[in-house]
Design brief:
120 residues; alpha+beta; Bit1; five-stranded mixed beta sheet
Length: 120
């Protein structure tokens, strides 16, 4: 039996579960979070994560405050993080904070920050 790949790097995308967004809307917000956080990561981290296969994990939190707290913790650890604010063109009011992208970063560092969160 083949061993499953070991990922040393990953990115976490965290979505608010209290907004009742459609599945498509949550997917779009996750994509925004992934790109924004990736752009804030340093070049070496980006290259290593890309070369390894770009592991992503999508998680959920209860509300906006949780996103802000996670962002502060990630940034204090030196990990790129970016909040997503919706434009308000479809399902939710303009300016609503919907998601947070964290990383890419070392998997063990990400687990210390997001390990207690549930999968979306």
């Amino acid at each position: 039996m083949e061993k499953s790949p070991q990922f040393a790097w990953k990115q976490c995308l965290v979505i608010r579960s209290d907004l009742r967004m459609s599945c498509g809307k949550m997917c779009a917000q996750s994509a925004h979070a992934a790109l924004l956080a990736y752009e804030r990561a340093d070049a070496v981290t980006r290259r290593k994560w890309l070369a390894e296969g770009q592991k992503k994990v999508v998680l959920k939190v209860a509300g906006e405050r949780d996103l802000y707290e996670l962002k502060v913790i990630a940034e204090a650890a030196g990990i790129a993080a970016a909040l997503v604010q919706d434009a308000g063109m479809t399902e939710i009011p303009p300016g609503t904070v919907t998601a947070l992208g964290i990383g890419p970063a070392k998997a063990e560092d990400m687990d210390r920050i997001t390990g207690s969160l549930s999968l979306l």
